[in-house]
Amino acid sequence: MNKGQIFDFFSRLAEANPAPVTELEYGNAYQLLVAVTLSAQATDVGVNKATRALFREVETPQQMVDLGEDALKQHIKTIGLFNTKAKNVIALSEILVRDFGGEVPQDRDALTTLPGVGRKTANVVLNTAFGQETFAVDTHIFRVGNRTGLAPGKTVLAVEDKLERRVPQPFRRDAHHWLILHGRYVCKARKPECWRCIVSDLCRFKPKTPEPGSVAKAA
Q1: Which of 138, 162, 191, 206 is catalytic?
Q2: What parts of the chain have a pLDDT lower than 70?
Q3: Which of 23, 30, 65, 189 could lock 44 by a disulfide, CB 3.0 to 4.6 Å apart?
Q4: pLDDT, tens digit, 9 for 90 and up, residues 144-156
Q5: How far apart are CA 81 and CA 40, in angstroms?
């Protein structure tokens, strides 16, 4: 895509959804950090089901430490890899209390020193909690970036770098939300729903998926 097409691409997504938000439920930056950490290899729906009761009880790192690993496991046992995730959440909470005054740092390098927090998780927290212009590349964004031609790359970091260089203002802050939602609900992994895609004419994916029930013309 050229610059004009990219601007048009995000203009359409923005018009359709002017205020995109994460589908994870949280009440503060710490709860968001926990939710994103738990969401690795899990769905947002599944994480939300597990954290609703947890977040009524735990709002701060100190409260998580006081809750303890065993009790945390009982809250999140429906989530994949819950044993490892519980260990990481308790460990990162202890570090936040000890080294950061119980506050979530607004710095990627500091965030990625926390157990279980990688670059993608840090980018989500920085963007969603603190409004920073970061691009958290998950499987949806990686797929959309490559499939559409918006930000092709062989690695997650390559796609992130392309987005960093190509996404214009005023779309930079919300771009990763639009791309995630587009990949989750329209540009799906197994079969993209091209017939109802508002940016299909800008997308390089071919052949476009026809609407179910339509009869394909013979060649």
Answers
A1: 138
A2: 215-219
A3: 23
A4: 999 999 999 999 9
A5: 9
Q: What SS3 state is found at 122?
A: helix
From 120, 154, 161, 201, the catalytic residue: 120
Dihedral (Cα; 211, 1, 15, 196), 10-degree rounding: 0
User: Could you tell me how many residues make up the chain?
Assistant: 219
Could you tell me the pTM of the whole model? 0.90
DSSP state string for 10-62: HHHHHHH-SS---SS--SSHHHHHHHHHHTTTS-HHHHHHHHHHHHHH--SHH
120 an active-site residue? Answer: yes
Q: Phi-psi region for residue 41, left (φ > 0), alpha (ψ -120 to 50) or beta? A: left
Instruction: Give the pLDDT of residue 214.
Output: 72
Q: Give pLDDT, residue 41.
A: 86
